[in-house]
């Protein structure tokens, strides 16, 4: 199991760092998963990730308090609004599908905005 968690941690770390350069791919959620995997497989890699100069403080805040920075909350809102607008304009969905997509996005945003602010 330790090897599986190590491989998953490396995989999600890779996705996280790719997400740092691609705007459509999230970074921190993948690194949160990586840190959890490394906690079960590699103390050295977990420590490296938690002390990373760019992402470490975000991961520690999440781990200790479940906190999300205010800027990230507003970016999530903006991304959802832009994504829904593109979906609506480019796909011409039925009202039912639009309602389902808007509801799912709303649930995600409620979760994000009810977390403590880092």
Keywords:
single chain, transmembrane helix, 118 residues, YbaN family protein, mainly alpha, transmembrane, 76% helix, membrane
What structural category do the secondary elements indicate?
Answer: mainly alpha
User: Can you give the mean pLDDT?
Assistant: 93
> Gap between N and C termini, in Å?
33 Å
**DSSP helical segment count:** 6
Query: Compute the gyration radius: what is it?
Result: 17 Å
Strand residues, percent: under 5%
Helix content: over 70%
Low-confidence stretches: none
Give a description of the structure.
By secondary structure, the chain is mainly α. The chain has 2 domains: 2-65, no CATH class; 70-114. Helices cover 76% and strands 0% of the residues. The protein contains 6 helices and no strands.
């Amino acid at each position: 199991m330790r090897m599986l968690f190590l491989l998953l941690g490396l995989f999600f770390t890779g996705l996280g760092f790719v997400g740092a350069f691609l705007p459509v791919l999230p970074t921190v959620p993948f690194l949160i998963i990586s840190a959890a995997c490394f906690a079960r497989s590699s103390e050295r890699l977990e420590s490296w990730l938690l002390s990373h100069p760019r992402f470490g403080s975000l991961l520690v805040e999440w781990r200790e308090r479940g906190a999300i920075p205010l800027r990230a909350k507003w970016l999530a809102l903006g991304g959802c609004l832009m994504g829904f607008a593109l979906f609506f304009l480019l796909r011409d969905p039925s009202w039912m599908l639009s309602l389902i997509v808007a509801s799912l996005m709303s649930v995600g945003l409620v979760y994000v905005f009810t977390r403590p602010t880092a």
